[in-house]
Design brief:
By secondary structure, the protein is of the alpha/beta class. It has one domain: Pyruvate-ferredoxin oxidoreductase, PFOR, domain III (Pyruvate-ferredoxin Oxidoreductase, domain 3). The chain has helices spanning about 25-35, 85-95, 110-115, 125-135, 145-150, 155-165, 175-185, 185-205, and strands at about 10-20, 40-45, 55-65, 80, 100-105, 135-140. The longest helix is centred in the C-terminal third of the chain and has 19 residues, at about 185-205.
């Protein structure tokens, strides 16, 4: 198999969101796709009361040379996928750098403190402005409404995988995504997940 040249080796990818968004599934799908491409992928995950909507973060270290430690060093992310925008800002502050890229879903999931009126949530405009200032390139996509229209809000995570494929920062190919689906998912869900993947790609290509 031909050696894949990455823009950085290891390439450090973080997927962040809150419990219930399918963060872990997205990280495993991306990891399997890249492994099938001949790359070494090490995944580390952290959970903060994830079942109650707490923070969930997956670290993926991707290399053509060998396995790496699962923890990405602070300030060393190359790409952050934010399934929830404020979680993206939180990770960006800790792991970002002037060259980092960000792929951000724009629909917030407000924590209980905001819902109860004890805390405030930043405006969408402020979040977008801060992310742009803290990164070298950012893409903003709206996966929540699209996933709801498809009948399952968790499909937003697969849309984010498709959007990542469309950025072309990593070798995520549609045919390998389909193969991973066939290995991981019930047959009846494959067509819907393929549609979500393609919809995510279109969000970047439009």
């Amino acid at each position: 198999m031909e050696t894949i040249q990455l823009s950085a080796d290891p390439y450090n990818l973080i997927i962040t969101g809150v419990g219930g968004q399918g963060n872990v599934l997205a990280s495993r799908v991306i990891g399997d796709i890249l492994s099938q491409s001949g790359l070494f992928v090490t995944i580390g995950e952290t959970f903060g009361a994830s079942q109650r909507g707490g923070s969930v973060m997956s670290h993926l270290r991707i290399s053509s040379k060998g396995s790496r430690s699962p923890q990405i060093p602070k300030g060393s992310a190359h790409m952050i996928i934010a399934l929830e925008p404020v979680e993206g800002l939180r990770v960006l502050k800790e792991y970002g750098n002037p060259d980092v890229h960000v792929l951000c879903n724009t629909r917030p999931i407000q924590p209980i403190g905001v819902i109860c009126g004890e805390q405030s949530y930043p405006s969408a405009e402020n979040i977008e402005d801060w992310i742009k200032k803290l990164s070298s390139k950012a893409w903003f996509i709206e996966t929540a409404d699209a996933a709801l229209k498809m009948g399952n809000p968790i499909l937003g995570n697969i849309m984010s995988v498709g959007a990542l494929a469309a950025t072309k920062v990593l070798p995520i190919e549609k045919k390998r995504f389909l193969k991973v689906l066939q290995e991981k998912m019930p047959a009846k869900t494959i067509e819907l997940n393929m549609q979500a993947f393609e919809m995510g790609m279109q969000m970047i290509n439009d």
